[in-house]
Write a structure and sequence with these properties.
This protein is an alpha/beta fold and 227 residues long. The chain contains nine helices and six strands, in the order βαβαβααααβααββα. α4 (97-106) runs antiparallel to α5 (110-126).
C-alpha cells in the first residue's frame, strides 16, 4: 500500500500586495511540518510541489526541517485555483482577490469579503464557462496529476506533496465521491501546513485517512493560522 502526504503551504502574505510569499510564521510552519514528517519515520521516495513561490518556499522549509536532501519535482498542475479570476468574474469591480480583501478591510468589513468569496466560489462551481479555468477543468487537472503521482509510486512507496488548499479540497472531495457540495462542507479544514494522508492499493484504490492534521502546530499555538 502506497502512502501520499499532501501538505498545504505555510502562511502566505494575506494582506500584502503580493500574497504569493510566506510570512516569517509560514517559514517556521514549513520547518515544523518537515520535522513532524521525519519524526513519524516517513522516508518519501519523491517530494513534489506546485510552482508557486509559496509552494517552493514551503517545500524548502519542509526539507530543512525534515533533514531530507531530496530534489523537489515541480509540476504546475499542483498549483492553486485562480482566485483572482474567480472573484473578478463574480464582482468585476475587484480586479484581484487581494484588491477585494483590501476594499473590505478598509471598510472594517472583513466578513463581507468572506461572503463575497463564498458567493464567487458557488458561481464558479455552477458556471461552466467564462473563466480562465472552469471548476470542471480544475478538478480534472487535479485528478490527472494525482493519478500520475499514484501510478508512478511503487506498491509501498511514499510521496510528499506541497500544494494549496483548493487542491487539497478537490482531492478530498473526489476521494469521498462528492463534488462541489462536499468541497464546501470541508472548506476550511485544510489549514496552513495541514497534512492530508492518503493511501492507495490495487484493491481499494485511493482512501482518505486524514484531513488537515496539525499536530506539529498544536503544541506551538503561536504558529497556528489558516490563511
Amino acid at each position: 500500500m502506497s502512502r501520499i502526504y499532501v501538505v498545504r503551504h505555510g502562511e502566505a502574505s494575506w494582506h500584502a500586495e503580493d500574497y504569493d510569499q510566506l510570512t516569517d510564521k509560514g517559514h517556521a510552519q514549513a520547518r515544523a511540518v518537515g520535522a513532524e514528517l521525519a519524526a513519524r519515520g516517513i522516508r518519501p521516495d519523491v517530494v513534489v510541489s506546485g510552482t508557486l513561490r509559496r509552494h517552493r518556499e514551503t517545500a524548502a522549509g519542509l526539507l530543512e526541517g525534515a533533514g531530507w536532501d531530496h530534489a523537489v519535482a515541480e509540476d504546475d498542475r499542483w498549483n492553486e485555483l485562480d482566485a483572482d479570476d474567480i472573484v473578478r468574474a463574480h464582482a468585476p469591480e475587484h480586479a484581484t482577490m487581494t484588491a477585494a480583501l483590501a476594499h473590505f478591510a478598509g471598510r472594517g468589513a472583513a466578513g463581507d469579503f468572506d461572503a463575497l468569496f463564498g458567493e464567487a466560489m458557488v458561481r464558479w462551481f455552477e458556471t461552466g464557462s467564462g473563466y480562465l479555468e472552469s471548476y470542471r477543468e480544475f478538478t480534472q487537472r487535479v485528478e490527472d496529476v494525482l493519478g500520475a503521482l499514484v501510478s508512478g509510486l511503487a506498491p509501498l512507496g511514499q510521496a510528499v506533496v506541497v500544494t494549496s488548499g483548493g487542491v487539497g479540497n478537490s482531492i478530498a472531495s473526489q476521494v469521498l465521491g462528492g463534488g462541489a457540495e462536499t468541497w464546501m462542507r470541508i472548506f476550511g479544514t485544510f489549514p496552513n501546513t495541514g497534512i492530508m494522508r492518503l493511501s492507495h492499493s490495487g484493491e481499494r484504490g485511493l482512501r482518505l485517512l486524514s484531513l488537515g492534521e496539525i499536530s506539529h502546530l498544536e503544541h506551538r499555538p503561536e504558529l497556528l493560522s489558516e490563511r
